[in-house]
Amino acid sequence: MINQADLGLLDGFERALINHRLHMVYQPKVSLVDGTLKRVEALVRWDDPKLGVVPPSRFVPLAERYGLIDQLTHWGLTTTLRQWLDWRAKGIDTCIAFNISALSLEHLDFPDLVERMCRALDVPTDRLVLELTEGATQPLIKLMDTLTRFRIKGIGLAMDDFGVGYSTLMQLRQLPFTEIKIDRFFVDDAVTSDDSRAIVASVIQLAHSLDLSVTAEGVETEAQLDLLCDFGCDVAQGYWIARPLEPGKLSQWQADWAKRWATLSRAKVARSLKAAKPVKPVNSRRRTSPPAQAAESIRN
Q: How far is the C-alpha of 187 from the C-alpha of 194, rounded, in Å?
């Protein structure tokens, strides 16, 4: 039975969904090889006139529980695909990541629906990555066929929040993921905690051995970014790189970030050169020890 507070929230959310009062923001993810924009993660936002800013952690579970998640998913994905078209027209070539509920995967035709949505808007399927939270992977083994059909269609699959939920190494091996995202819990203190640092390094190595790419979430300091670069992490996202942006601000952020990355790269090279110890030249001329010199004098 739903309580009064949730009932009011659910009613407000349904009205917001019907009346187009939700909106999407996009958080950039950057390559740690060259700093370029790799993709953006689409995130739904709800600013209610009476309730204020309502976080997704409150309204998404309600949508799942009371049958609104498919409608939310359809609206969010359509909005995101159309935004990709607008960016492409402006010369921004990137990929998009979109979070989906495990409940949507229970519909056998869901992969076909997503493919039709991409084709209808002329968005290549290989520009789309669907993200699933790790806690949702418990039943995903039963949905192997559905996940595999996404991969056949060229759509990427990412396991979100890796390391803090229910995933197992067996699921990593069996499920057709293309990417894992290291949870911010480990990234947060990886610079200061030997345990977290070892876990992050091990996860990156494991993922690469399974031919998976790795994204680190929650990057909030330059030191964290440097460490992830040293570990060979592929992609990073977090407030230090960019907060979730309104779609019209992506182009300016991209230009500003390119300058920041160039500065970071020069600073890292300078630190590397400073840390490198000068090598003393080796004198190849044969030196004669004093005892040897004395012996030679006696013989002469």
A: 12
Domain count, the chain: 1
Q: What is the CATH number of the domain that holds 155?
A: 3.20.20.450
Give the residue carrying structure tokens 């806690």. Answer: 135
Residue 36 lies in a domain: yes
What is the per-residue pLDDT across 137-165, written as a single tens digit (0 to 9) for each?
456 667 888 999 999 999 999 988 786 65
Q: Is the model's pTM score more than 0.90?
A: no
